[in-house]
Each structure stands twice: as structure tokens, then as C-alpha cells.
Design a protein that fits this description.
heterodimer, A: 170 residues, alpha/beta, Aconitase, domain 4, seven-stranded mixed β-sheet, 7 strands, B: 431 residues, Aconitase, domain 3, five-stranded parallel β-sheet, 15 helices
């Protein structure tokens, strides 16, 4: 986080359904783009073309179960991060996507009922360590899982590469 | 306390006597595989600032997603990877024309053996569980960490055991079995879990058919998926693997999250089809009615092996592909290509009107060599039918067995093989 804490605040840009797969997040035809920043241009290009142009820095994507199922393509997590998403909250995550997000420093928060308890436009405050989501618009708490300490360490470092860089520079 | 296969392998790889589900362990990695996304891994690795990878003999790189390069951009990344391979002394590199699809190339060339920990920057790395390996997909940044450290943290998965008995009916294959199971359990039915397939019906299967199960277990979220390490597997491995081979198995008193039993002959009456746009939208073929197809694809890491080409060749022999349909065939590796050529399968397929793509992922990943236009429908032996997976977001992909793909190419619509081939032959190759 910019201020060094593991709390963040943002507006829900969209509430998506279950099984949002990696081809919906980032189409396979763009997998030869290996500049992470450039992946952002193709976020949700086929499935939700209206989403990316409206995404503002720090916006939160909320979804149902099994977000990021399918391919191991890291571009799915990279595209979200570099398009400006501050976090993804989902009922559950497919495991490779979850690890990719954390490794890139994109907070991925498991909250089983988030897609029912949040609406587009709601402002949320997330405490990643405590596993708390406060819906400021609806003035209610949304039950969430605390991030594993290992994931917290990686998010705090800004991702796996900065983490390892520091480790080997020391 | 007894351990499952996943627990056993992770215990050993992390230097422990015993591990339990949900425990976090750091495991040594025996093999690290990447395809073209080695370029992403390379960039992340260089950012870390280390001069050398941890062990150049334990990294395998196989080009398969875009071969030969379909664009200047891909050609440039291929070149960058080749230069990195040379600079780091990476010993096992399968360039264009030397290998094929990574999940076929690794076992074919003796890189995979029971009990190893294998990570790959490809989700279908689960395929190697058919060789008794704890094999799972990871992202490129995570792989850069593996290239640096030769180790990775894992949460020990709980295990689903799927026991299959009974005789497969005619025209029902390993693909139909796994689609049936995914349809029952759902796209996240095995999320974060290990799967052990076992039972008499599995133990009669060829190694190629077992690979179909381990490969597609990914589509229900499995972290790893095993089929038995038995004599049939060791017969496959012995001529290929120089190292000593080990018979590993789950302990008899291992504890499972759930045991699922399938009677193949009783539960699966006919070919199964995964309908657009999800792999768990599974229906028996007869429930679908008339579905015309503009393209039929036979290939991929799921179903591009010799037995798949054989069943297709036997179905199309002496017939021609329907005028409205294009049949695209992709042998999974150079070796399979040569075997299929030698055995006449390719001759038969081409004579029927098929086009043969080079061994690689081709249209399965939606990049080239058979992309779908809006409004087109494809029946495919591949592994994903997501929205826009093989081209236009307004195209449809139905996943099916190789036999159904071949029969549908002849009929110009989704078709049961028995509607094409009256005399019939089993399409589950048993050994």
C-alpha cells in the first residue's frame, strides 16, 4: 500500500458472477504481450469491454466463486493490477490466479458473500491483515478471510520480485 | 498415520516425516517447466538481480503455444528465450520442430518420474500426475522465484479419491469419463485439492488415456491429479527414464476428504459433451439435438496422442469431411506426428479432407491455425470452451472425445460415432 499499511479503500467498479475465467479476464490471443503494463489494455476485452475504460485507480472488482479459473496466465492478474484495480474480492479464487495476484502485489480477498453484500459504486474499506471489509456506503461489515501471513508479507513488499530482490540484495 | 500420494510426496520434498492438509510447507522442486511464457519468467528473474538460475539441469523449456512464430512479436520473444537458454546453460530446450506440446514432450523424453515435484507455467501441468509426479501449474513470477531458489511453498491439499470400476461402453472413452466427473463436481469441485483416480477401470487404461484424466482434472480446479503408479506405467517409463523408478502409492489408511465411486458401464451410457461456455456444462450427446459444426479440432495436450489419431483415422477412413466443416488435426508431438505418419493415420485423415497443423497448441489457445469467426461452432477434443477461447466471442466450442470429433467432422454436425461407423470398435484403448 502507498502508506505502508495493509488497509485500503476503494469504490466497487463491478460485481461479477461465478467462474469468471482467465480468458474472460485476459484473452489468450494477447499472451505474447510480456510487458506487464501493456496487458492492461486488454483487460476483460471480450467479456466486459465496457469495464476497463471506466476503471479508476484503486477501484475494486467484486465477484462470486472461483474467480480466475482456467489458465495459469499471469497476465490476468497483471492486467487487473496495471489497469488500476486496487483489489479483487471474490467468494473464492482459483488457486493459480490467487497466487499470481499475491505475487504481483494485487490484493485478492476471499469473502464468500461479497457479491451479495456489495453493489457497483459502493465504497469499501479493506483491512487485509484482519480480514475485514467495511462497506462504507451500506454501513455494514462484509465477512472476509484474513490473508495468510505469507501473502501479507508479499503484498507488503509489493510482490514476490521486490521481496526476493530485497532478500538477495541483503 | 497414513498419507495420500500428495501428502507423501510433499512430506519427502519438504524433509518431513508427516504432513497434514492445510499445512504450509516449502518443498524442493525437481523440475521446472515453461513454454513461451519463459520470456515473462526471464524478465522477472532478471529483475531479482541474480546472475544464474539455481540449476540449469532442472529447467525444461518447450515452445508450443505459437509455433512456428505467427508474428514478429512472438519471433522476438522466442529469440530472447533462446538467448537466455544459451546464456544460462539450460540443458533441456525443445525448440520449434524438436518437441511439440510441453505436456507430451516431458514424459516422452523421460523428464517425469513418480514421486517428483514438478511445477510448470501452464495450468495443465496436472497432466504429469499420470506419471506419479506432484505436478502443478504456477504463474510466471512464481516461476522466477523457483529459478532463483529451487523451492516453493505449498499448502498441503486434501485429497478427493475417485474410484472407477465397470466396463466402458463402446464409444465411451477416458475423455467422456472425466467430462462426466467434471459435470458432476463442477468447475470448482476439486479446487485446491489433490485428486487420486484409481480402481480397476483406471488400471486397465493406457498411459495416454490416464493423461486425459490428470490433464482435465485441472478444469475442476485440482491442484494435482494422480493415476496409479503400476506396471503399465513403469513399462512406459523404463525405456525413457534413466533414473531408478519407484513404485509409490497412497497408504491404505490414508485419509480422504471424500471418496467418489463411478461405475463406468452403468453411469456413462454414451459420449459426454461440455457445452459453451464452461467445461462443467456437460450433457450426454443425445440430449443436444442438431448442432451443425463449421470446424472440428482434434489435438491438444488433452487428446492429441497416437490413440486419439488412430480412433479418428478409423472413423474417417474411406469417408470425406462434410462440405460445411473443416477438420483440423494436431499431433501432440513430433514423435506422435512421425508415428501417425508411419502407421498411415495422417494419410487417412488428409485423404478425408483434414488439415494437419504442426505439433503445438494451435487454435486451442485462440492464437492461430484455426480461429473461429462470429457465429461459427466448433467441436473440439481440447480442454476449454470458455467465451472467445478459440476466436470470436460470438463463436461456440463444444468439447468432446476424439471419436465424436471425427464423427462430427464427417456428419457436419455433432454426431455419435455409431451413426458413421456401423461396424463399431472400442474407442477406449485398453492394455
Amino acid at each position: 500500500m502507498p502508506d505502508g499499511s495493509l488497509k485500503l479503500r476503494g469504490r466497487v467498479r463491478a460485481v461479477l458472477g461465478d467462474n469468471i475465467d482467465t480468458d474472460m479476464i485476459y484473452p489468450g490471443r494477447y499472451l505474447n504481450i510480456t510487458d506487464r503494463e501493456k496487458t492492461a489494455e486488454h483487460l476483460f476485452e471480450l467479456a466486459y469491454p465496457e469495464l476497463r475504460p471506466n476503471l479508476e485507480a484503486g477501484d475494486i472488482i467484486v465477484a462470486g466463486r472461483n474467480f480466475g479459473c482456467g489458465s495459469s496466465r499471469e497476465q490476468a492478474a497483471a492486467a487487473l493490477k496495471f489497469a488500476g484495480a486496487g483489489a479483487v474480492i471474490a467468494g473464492s479464487f482459483a488457486r493459480i490466479f490467487f497466487r499470481n495476484a499475491i505475487n504481483l502485489g494485487l490484493p485478492a480477498v476471499v469473502a464468500p458473500l461479497a457479491s451479495l453484500a456489495c453493489a457497483a459504486g459502493d465504497e469499501l474499506e479493506i483491512d487485509l491483515v484482519a480480514g475485514e471489509i467495511r462497506n462504507l456506503t451500506g454501513d455494514r461489515m462484509v465477512e472476509a478471510a484474513a490473508l495468510d501471513p505469507r501473502a501479507v508479507e508479499l503484498i507488503a513488499a509489493g510482490g514476490l520480485i521486490p521481496y526476493l530482490k530485497r532478500k538477495y540484495a541483503a | 498415520m497414513g498419507m495420500t500420494l500428495a501428502e507423501k510426496i510433499l512430506a519427502r520434498a519438504s524433509g518431513r516425516e508427516q504432513v497434514w492438509p492445510d499445512q504450509i510447507v516449502v518443498a524442493r522442486v525437481d523440475l521446472a517447466m515453461s513454454h513461451e511464457n519463459a520470456d515473462l519468467v526471464r524478465k522477472s528473474f532478471l529483475e531479482i538481480g541474480l546472475a544464474h538460475v539455481w540449476d540449469p539441469s532442472k529447467i525444461v523449456i518447450v515452445f508450443d503455444h505459437r509455433i512456428p512464430a505467427e508474428s514478429e512479436k512472438t519471433a522476438t520473444t522466442h529469440k530472447a528465450v533462446r538467448e537466455f537458454v544459451a546464456a544460462q546453460g539450460i540443458e533441456h530446450f525443445y525448440d520449434v520442430g524438436r518437441g511439440g506440446i510441453c505436456h507430451q514432450v516431458l514424459p516422452e523424453n523421460g523428464h517425469v518420474r513418480p514421486g517428483m515435484v514438478l511445477v510448470g507455467t501452464d495450468s495443465h501441468t496436472t497432466t504429469h500426475g499420470a506419471f506419479g509426479a506432484f505436478a502443478t501449474g504456477i504463474g510466471a513470477t512464481e516461476m522466477a522465484g523457483v529459478w532463483a531458489e529451487g523451492a516453493l511453498w505449498f499448502k498441503v491439499p486434501s485429497t478427493l479419491r475417485i474410484e472407477v470400476e465397470g466396463e466402458f461402453r463402446q464409444w465411451v472413452s477416458a475423455k467422456d469419463l472425466i467430462l462426466y466427473i467434471i459435470g458432476r463436481l463442477g468447475a470448482d469441485g476439486a479446487d485446491y485439492r489433490a485428486v487420486e483416480f484409481d480402481g480397476p477401470a483406471i488400471r486397465r487404461m493406457t498411459v495416454a488415456s490416464r493423461m486425459v484424466l490428470a490433464n482435465l482434472a485441472m478444469e475442476m480446479g485440482a491442484k494435482v491429479a494422480f493415476t496409479p503408479v503400476d506396471e503399465i506405467l513403469l513399462d512406459y517409463l523404463r525405456p525413457r527414464v534413466p533414473e531408478k523408478l519407484e513404485m509409490i502409492a497412497a497408504d491404505a489408511d490414508a485419509s480422504y476428504e471424500r471418496v467418489i465411486r463411478v461405475d463406468a458401464g452403468h453411469d456413462i451410457l454414451e459420449p459426454q459433451i461440455a457445452c459453451p461456455h464452461a467445461v462443467d456444462h456437460v450433457q450426454p450427446l443425445s440430449a443436444l439435438g442438431e448442432v451443425p459444426v463449421e470446424q472440428a479440432v482434434l489435438g491438444s495436450c488433452t487428446n492429441g496422442r497416437l490413440e486419439d489419431l488412430e480412433v479418428a483415422a478409423r472413423i474417417v477412413a474411406g469417408r470425406v469431411v462434410h462440405p460445411r466443416t473443416r477438420l483440423v488435426v494436431i499431433p501432440a508431438s513430433q514423435q506422435i506426428y512421425r508415428d501417425a505418419m508411419r502407421l498411415g493415420y495422417l494419410e487417412t485423415l488428409v485423404a478425408a479432407g483434414a488439415i494437419i497443423n504442426p505439433p503445438g497448441c494451435g487454435p486451442c489457445v485462440g492464437v492461430h491455425q484455426g480461429i473461429l469467426a462470429a457465429g461459427e461452432t466448433c467441436v473440439s477434443s481440447t480442454n476449454r470452451n470458455f467465451l472467445g477461447r478459440m476466436g470470436s466471442k460470438d463463436s461456440l466450442v463444444y468439447l468432446a472425445s476424439p471419436a465424436v470429433v471425427a464423427a462430427s467432422a464427417i456428419a457436419g454436425k455433432l454426431a455419435h460415432p455409431e451413426s458413421i461407423v456401423k461396424e463399431g470398435f472400442p474407442c477406449l484403448t485398453e492394455v
